[in-house]
Design goal:
Layout lengths: L1 E5 L3 H13 L3 E5 L2 H7 L6 E4 L8 H11 L4 E5 L4 H9 L4 E4 L4 H15 L14 E4 L2 E4 L4 E4 L2 E3 L3 H11 L5 E3 H9 L7 H15 L5 E4 L3 E4 L2
Parallel strand pairs: 1-2, 1-3, 3-4, 4-5
Antiparallel strand pairs: 6-7, 7-8, 8-9, 10-12, 11-12
Helix pairs in contact: 2-3, 6-7, 6-8
Protein name: Sensory transduction protein RegX3
Keywords: DNA-binding, Phosphoprotein, Transcription, Transcription regulation
Organism: Microbacterium soli
Length: about 220
């Protein structure tokens, strides 16, 4: 996912960009409203928008973004007044978070917004109300929560399926361990890294396709695309 960060404060932008990068997101930064409007393109999947920009009010930027694109917009600003939140939402923002915020909360909001607006993005073979990913004779049904190998059902535990599903949403893409732990165990605790390894080993054994889930050294895991 490519996120446009619209933030004029170098310190805030650098820290946020580094955190999102570690969480598996690609980022690009705009220092003001004019640059933000120039940088928005078909590959922009979400905008994090500060309101206190040097050239124009962020609310106006939000309106202009919404006039040209349906890309999700999350306003992240120090303005905490209820009226500002109302203005932002009425301008077309999808969510609003007040600085200083916990980056984990922001990450959860990003995931919630993209899941709500693009529930089937990144899924190969999705059609109708079904979400199917098929790789090397393995079929992953994200709706029925079922995995089959050559039409034979594979019994996975809930956590095992959650891991497979998290990888299946981004076939061919290396998903960081931190993101898998956060999505499956709903925590950032690194103590779950070993548990993730054990679950992946069990999945490989049950599915019988060791190369289906590739270990990406220093990053995480990738489902064969």
């Amino acid at each position: 996912m490519r996120i446009l960060i619209v933030e004029d404060d170098d310190r805030v932008a650098d820290a946020l960009g580094a955190f999102l990068s570690r969480s598996g997101y690609a980022t690009v930064r705009a220092v003001d409203g004019a640059q933000a409007l120039e940088l928005i393109g078909s590959d922009t999947e979400l905008v994090l928008l500060d309101l206190g920009l040097p050239d124009m009010d962020g609310i106006d930027v939000c309106r202009r973004i919404r006039a040209q694109s349906g890309v999700p917009v999350i306003i992240a600003t120090a303005r905490s007044e209820v009226q500002e939140r109302i203005r932002g939402l009425r301008a077309g923002a999808d969510d609003f978070v007040v600085k200083p915020y916990d980056v984990r909360e922001l990450l959860a909001r990003i995931e919630a917004v993209t899941r709500r607006l693009h529930p089937l993005d990144g899924l190969d073979g999705a059609s109708g109300d079904r979400a199917l990913v098929e790789v090397d004779g393995v079929s992953i049904d994200l709706v029925a929560r079922r995995v089959t190998v050559d039409d034979e059902n594979v019994e996975l535990t809930r956590k095992e399926f959650d891991i497979v599903a998290a990888l299946a949403r981004y076939p061919g893409v290396a998903v960081p361990r931190e993101r898998l732990i956060r999505e499956v165990w709903n925590t950032d605790w690194q103590s779950f890294a070993r548990s993730l390894e054990v679950h992946v080993a069990s999945i490989r054994r049950k599915i019988g396709r060791p190369s289906l889930i590739e270990t990406v050294r220093g990053v995480g895991y990738r489902l064969e695309g």
